[in-house]
Amino acid sequence: HMNESADFVMYWWDRAAELLTRKGTVLRRFGFVTTNSITQVFQRRVMEPHLNAKKPISLVLAIADHPWTKASRDAAAVRIAMTVAEAGQHDGILREVVSEVGLDTDTPALIFTDRSGRINSDLSVGVDVTQAVGLRANDDLCTAGVKLHGSGFIISPVQAQGLGLGSIAGLDQHIRHYRNGRDLTARPRGLMVIDLFGLDAEEVRRRFPAVYQHVQVTVKPERDTNNRETYKNNWWIFGEPRREIRPALKNLPRYIATVETAKHRIFQFLDASILPDNMLVAIATDDASHLGILSSRIHTTWALFAGGTLEDRPRYSKSRCFDPFPFPAADEVQKQAIRAPAEELDALRKTVLDAHEHLTLTKLYNVLEEVKAGTAPADLSPVSRRIYDDGLVGVLAELHDRIDR
User: Fold this and answer.
1) Is 362 exposed, middle or buried (0-12, 13-18, 19+ CB in 10 A)?
2) Does the global pTM surpass 0.90?
3) CA triplet 304, 255, 364: central angle to 5 degrees?
4) What are phi and psi of 384, to 5 degrees?
5) At what angle do helices 382-390 and 361-372 cross, to 10 degrees?
6) Cα dist. 295→252, 298, 388, 399 in Å?
7) DSSP class per residue in 219-236
8) Which of 61, 144, 297, 345 is a Cys-bridge partner for 399, taking CB atoms 3.0 to 4.6 Å apart?
């Protein structure tokens, strides 16, 4: 049932696959209608062993991304997937929706294209990108941001000042600027976060008593009810402080970040003083050549195929998108050719966003997609044309083209 959790759906997919290969079974095929999250990493791991077993099953029909029809105009952008499995090794038909209209009517019109071949666990035909493995060169360079497990860690700049920021020595290392996905794709909220990683409770109480009391009052009661012992016992520290990447970030003036689940795959530099939320993916490098490579069509196309999709928004999975990605062995001349437009791209976006309150990264890239699709600036709607002009989207497009070349 598509309204159940992904874990529940994949549990039953797993059980059905076992039944299909059981000796003496009368079951010949089974099919599921699920959310399109079935193509994400965890769900793929459920399917892969059955597709590659000694007694395999095969996907004989799949639609990876299908609209939920009869939906109202204001409904969430629910997307579904359909899978049909049969015992044995068989090619299948992968059906792709190429046109969809009238989804909120009794007569939706959808047009499909079909491809034949072995259907992979990510519901693709052809090269199976799910078999790519992580590279040692990329170890410990990329991680999701911190996971707080306690809303009391988040404070305003006024609260931070009241707790001693600016007047108590060393506190600036533990009260930091904070960004989540919406802060990057829309506008920053200006919030800060209390980060006490590396300190024990006694040291926090002795050095920063006001901070200690704030966390004790606003975080500890929530942690006391958590079933996970490490969360309960270490209540003054984030639930997931991401200790593995902190050494890599420690001496950098900036690092690269992208929003884990977003309509557009955008990479940007964040200042080292900013702590990323768990819905951001942080990459420990300050080299603009890496920013350019990650922003290029080569990498964003790879990430779209290797990662999953939530509703209609691609997800950037560290283990599937970054870890297996081979950065080119570029020489310094080549790196500099990439650095120049990448630095200019990052600076341009920050400049236009600072200058115009109505702009967001999402709006900029929505209009950029319109232009890439062939819409001339003169033919844009008034709203899009204002974004094009104020956001210098034509220059944005040119910089992306330079990086791709």
Assistant:
1) middle
2) no
3) 55
4) -65, -35
5) 110
6) 20, 8, 20, 11
7) THHHHHT-S-HHHHHTTT
8) 345
- 350 alpha carbon, distance to own chain's centre: 21
Burial of 262 (0-12, 13-18, 19+ CB in 10 A): buried
pLDDT digits (tens, 9 = 90+) for 338-385: 999 999 999 999 999 999 999 999 999 999 999 999 999 999 999 999
Whether the CB-CB separation of 123 and 36 falls below 8 Å is answered with no
Which pair of structure tokens corresponds to residue 319?
């283990």
Neighbours of 264 (CB within 10 A): 17
Q: Please count the other Cβ atoms lying within 10 Å of the Cβ belonging to residue 294.
A: 26
Exposure string over 94-116, b if 16+ CB within 10 A, otherwise e: bbbeeeeeebeeeeeebeeeeee
d(CA 89, CA 76): 37
Alpha helices in 273-381 (DSSP H): 288-295, 297-306, 332-355, 361-372
**Helix ranges (DSSP H) in 186-228:** 201-207, 209-218, 220-224
- Beta pairing class for 274-276 and 175-179: parallel
What span, in angstroms and rounded, lies between the C-alpha atoms of 297 and 235?
43
The pair of structure tokens assigned to 236 is 């003054």
Dump pLDDT digits (tens) for 277-321: 999 999 999 999 999 999 999 999 999 888 877 666 888 989 999
Residue 402's identity, in one-letter code, is R
Are 132 and 126 contacting, i.e. CB atoms less than 8 angstroms apart?
no
